[in-house]
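Comment thread on ticket #2218

A.B. wrote:
> Attaching the input chain for the structure job we discussed in standup.
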Amino acid sequence: MHVLWKLRSAFVKDVIRELPDPKPPYNTVSSVIRLLEKKGYVDHKAYGKTYEYFPVVQKKEYSKLTFKKLLGNYFDGSYKSLVSFIVKEEALTDEQIQELEQLIAEQKKQTPDA
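C.D. wrote:
> Ran it. Output below, let me know if you need it in another format.
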């Protein structure tokens, strides 16, 4: 998806060119793009048997969708479990923890009490 957002539209060979070495096989990239299309993230324009693919979802929307899946599939929908994992596994610095605390404090200010 990142390559398609960057290029805005691309043929499979263009996507492969943008990927780091070692380059995956053409069929693998083609299959992944078709899977993304099946899920509604990508569409194509046909030129005979050749397809030019383009993203139909914005990066922000895609991020929200994939984050919700990550949270549900790996953390049982628990934000506490997610934050706990980040703090423990990523060895956050004091500064990074302070930034997280600031974000939470700012969110609390913006959210009226229920």
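A.B. wrote:
> Thanks. Noting for the ticket: The beta strands are 42-47, 50-55.
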